Amino acid sequence: MTLTGKVAIVTGSGRGLGLAYAQELARQGASVVVNDVVESAADAAVRAIADAGGAATAVVAPVGPTETAKQLVDAAFETYGRLDIVVTNAGVLRDTVLWKMSDDDFDTVIGVHLRGTFTIVREAAIRLREQGEGGRIIAIGSPTGQRGNFGQTNYAAAKAGIVGMVRTWALELKRASITANAVIPVAATAMTATVPYFASAVAADEKGEPMPRFFRHDLGFGTAADVAGLVAFLASDEAAGVTGQAIGVGGDRLQLWSHPEPVATAYREGGWTYDALVESFAAEVGELQSLGETFPPLPDELQPPQA
């Protein structure tokens, strides 16, 4: 139990991936502040952790407002006397194409994912620096934030912003021995359950059966439990030297995402005029960067049934 004596906050942990993170942190010995907007889900998560021999308390509140951030951090100190780990997982989806996306669609997703991550980490950083014993910030990103995805302007912006904040926090919090990393999970969730491509994998997960190897190995797509191990590792003393990173995990696959770096550089005396770009852009830049994620064809035996 590598996290014995540690205290963790996990936002959006009443169900799904967040619940898996909270349960694994508790299994490793941490006391957990569970958070959800649905009281019954938060209470059920606390009971599940307690039934497994762990310690947990719940804060039922929407992530985003500074008041919620203060409430969560206060709950950690008032209940357990300290704070060591923050996992920012809470999120919502409002998917639609750009020209149909309303202000509310955009603001809601940015408010929960991006502002919610910012407010809780800001509050935690203040208290962790005062505590003076280091700490762990683990923010949950998404492949959409790394690559983009059709119909997810708001979600892509929020998740890309989270990774940008993590890189900045790693610099700002280094002297306080507080690490900051982003986890990029690829797992069966309520969102992937609606995608026919993943139907057989999600169905296997719901039945408690192993997912087909094609999903776990070839796609790096797995269960919530497959992601939870990385979260617990990053929360541990063993990961003290890991900070400012975006790390992907899913199924049997672990990935370290690169920081954005130039892939082509060219110089021209006097600068790049319009005419010079028309003449030389393609030759100087070369192959452009790809967009979105592409998946290989499903094997015949994993094809979803035809309607």
TrEMBL record:
Entry keyword Transcription: no
Keywords: Oxidoreductase
Domain Ketoreductase, residue spans: 6-194
Signal peptide: none
Pfam families with a match to the protein in the record: adh_short_C2 (PF13561)
Family to which the UniProt record says this protein belongs: Belongs to the short-chain dehydrogenases/reductases (SDR) family.
Name by which UniProt lists this protein: SDR family oxidoreductase
